[in-house]
Amino acid sequence: xxxxxxxxxxxxxxxxxxxxxAKNPARVEKLxxxxxxxxxxxxxxxxxxxxxxxxxxxxxGTLGFSMSLFGAGFVTWGKYxxxxxPFEETRALMTTTPEEQSALIDDFASRGKVAVKRRGFxxxxxxxxxxxxxxxxxxxxxxxxxxxxxxSFYTTxxxxxxxxxxxxxxxxxxxxxxxxxxVTVFPQDDIGGAISQTILIHVQDSAITTKAGxxxxxxxxxxxxxxxxxxxxxxxGLYEQLTGLLLCPCHQSMFDVAKGALPVFGPAPRxxxxxxxxxxxxxxxRAQTGYDEPVGxxxxxxxxxx
Length: 306
Description:
This protein is α+β, with helices and mostly antiparallel strands.
């Protein structure tokens, strides 16, 4: 910083010189741009690896590679391509004129912009690298939300003609379930599925109608209801033959089988959905169609009982 002469007159300073440390700035610019471009490729590779649930070697390698190059590009730019001081300028005694103030503002602004305006390509590559990283940084958040539910809130894997299949993969025949007993069944393509699990009960030896409109749903006294409790989603796993009630052991909700699994006790807000059945020519129990309403508890909050 310049001082003043003995008579108080400001010493005139030379115009600022925007010098850089690099002996060959063009070469350093290219090297920095290459670093940013490789960082872009690395960030994209990390995003792809994360989305495909690759192992930690790929995740750590691609992220470390890209972050290192991104940081090295910044360091190289700042160390070799930014203007270097010291800078000298005049200093007013007490007050400054409007012209001097304007000149000071222009000079201050030009020092910060000179290394950017002259290197637009580097700014572009840096922006691309930063943009790609910002997008990829959202991937962990999106993946942590789990798979897209699609229509699973409303439907199960039960379809027209699905065989009622036991947990060990055997199709359920009418002779397999005596009167008064029950078994847990699944569609043949989703054995063990938590949402599609269904309880099959042999209530009597003749057809049973649990509700108007369901005259064909209970052939030979067999009825099937979703095993997912409509209160908190626990498996309804107990059947009392004498009372004809299904019991959820979690919160003691009780459902009347003869009345379409209507809740008669406990916090369950609505009946268990019933699966319409039929017996094929070989005596195997199969689904007429899938459930006609969502199973278990959920956002639809129908409330009340039927």
